[in-house]
Amino acid sequence: MNPIEQIIDERLRRYFAPEALMIENESPKHHGHRSNPGGIETHFKITMISKEFKDLSRIERHRKVQAVLKDLMNNPIHALSLSLFGGEQISNF
User: Fold this and answer.
1) Residue 24 maps to which CATH number?
2) DSSP one-letter string for 3-22
3) Nearest CA-CA partner of 82 in 41, 39, 53, 55
4) Short-list 66, 71, 56, 53, CA closest to 16
5) Residue 91 belongs to a domain
6) How many structural domains compose the chain?
7) Closest to 4 measured CA to CA, from 21, 25, 33, 18
8) What pLDDT is stored for residue 39 in this prediction?
9) pTM of the complete model
């Protein structure tokens, strides 16, 4: 696990105590793009199930995660894809 990915993992586990967490570093797919000229940790996809999200709207869930990662946004993180669930049935996680 790379350093930024490790920070994301630790923070999400600390703040949300997820039942399931998957972090995918999608940066290699964007290597050479203007937004990622050579960075290895700029684009992430996060899928997480946490009771902390129960009864929250999709936007409220996203805001909570973005608040926890605020200091990483725009530098080094350029793009963040979020799939956040509050414990409802999930298939193919």
Assistant:
1) 3.30.300.90
2) HHHHHHHHHHHHHH--SEEE
3) 53
4) 53
5) no
6) 1
7) 25
8) 60
9) 0.83
